[in-house]
Amino acid sequence: MVQTIGPVGYGRSGYSKIGAWKLAAIFCAALTVCALLIGLLLSIATFPLGCLFQTFAEQKVYFALGIIALWLAAIDLGILQFRLPEHPWQVPRHWVLKFSPPKLALLYGTYLGVPMLTYIPHKTFFFVLAASLTWVGGISPLVTLGLYGAGRGIAIALGTLFYVEDRRFGDVLLSKYSKSKLYSGVQFAWIGGLLMSALPYGLS
Amino acid sequence: MNRQQSRLVRLVVLGLAGFAGHITAWWITLQSDYSNLTAVLGFCVVFGAFLSGFLSLWSP
């Protein structure tokens, strides 16, 4: 991903360290703000759903979320194959030829702020979304999508800054892709086991 | 390691991680002052949201 976003930080006229920082900041801010707006809309839209889940026995909701976490962890670990609502690519590459670097940083940031419009590399994101849709623990999609956007924005902005310094950085990151999926899968399998145990142990 | 063995290893990893979660739940039941799973889940969701976004760095 950094290899696509990287040229935005690099610009067409050549490498400038201050320019790269500015573009990374625009990208990161646009991504976070857009993700927060989508989260706000989703929070308003799913509030009745959250109220409905509050009427269910808490442990049953946890158990269902635990199954979802394990299922998504199995997808991230490559054990299961399943198509989820997402696009096969992350950002339209041809925009690089159409727009100036600041506009491109803004557009790419805004575009990546809507997770469903892009490729979601770690499927366990859907667990986070499902958990927030139930408003469990009072956590709304506004919080989770905002944090997801901020995490994605900070990571890619930082990665872009490294990439403009050394083009090999993108390849180094790509070589660790399967390890990042393993980490994500293990973490959510642990959460799944924890949540599914809520029912037999009577935790609340 | 062929594909079948690799899949089996990942399945074992999944099972072990899930079991570790089960042990954590059991441990929570032993803590009289820390029995609120909602708080644990809240933390997992908040941390997981940020982490899922951050891990995008390693994607193609």
Structure characterization notes:
The complex is a heterodimer of chains A (204) and B (60). Chain A has helices at 2-10, 17-54, 58-76, 95-98, 101-112, 125-133, 141-165, 169-175, 177-196, 198-201. In chain A, 72% of the residues lie in helices and 0% in strands. The model of chain A has no long low-confidence stretch (mean pLDDT 81). Chain A is mainly α and 204 residues long. Chain B is mainly α. Helix content of chain B is 77%, strand content 0%. Chain B contains 2 helices and no strands. The longest helix of chain B has 28 residues, at 3-30. The two termini of chain B are 25 Å apart. At the A-B interface, helix 3, helix 6, helix 7 and helix 9 of A face helix 1 and helix 2 of B.
List keywords for this structure.
heterodimer; A: 204 residues; mainly alpha; globular; B: 60 residues; flat
Write the layout of secondary structure elements.
The complex is a heterodimer of chains A (about 200) and B (about 60).
Chain A: H1 2-10, H2 17-54, H3 58-76, H4 95-98, H5 101-112, H6 125-133, H7 141-165, H8 169-175, H9 177-196, H10 198-201
Chain B: H1 3-30, H2 37-54
The portion of residues assigned to helices of chain A is over 70%
Radius of gyration of chain A: 19 Å
User: In angstroms, what separates the terminal alpha carbons of chain B?
Assistant: 25 Å
User: Which residues of chain A form runs of ≥5 with pLDDT under 50?
Assistant: none
Shape of chain A: globular
Oligomerization state:
heterodimer
Domain unit count of chain A: 1
* Rg calculated over all Cα atoms of chain B: 16 Å
What is the number of helices of chain A? 10
How many structural units, i.e. domains of chain B? 1
Runs of chain B with pLDDT <50, length 5+? none
Global structural class of chain B = mainly alpha
Biggest beta sheet attributes of chain A: none
Strand pairing plus helix content of chain A: what structural class?
mainly alpha
Number of strands of chain A: 0
SSE topology string of chain B: HH
Number of strands of chain B: 0
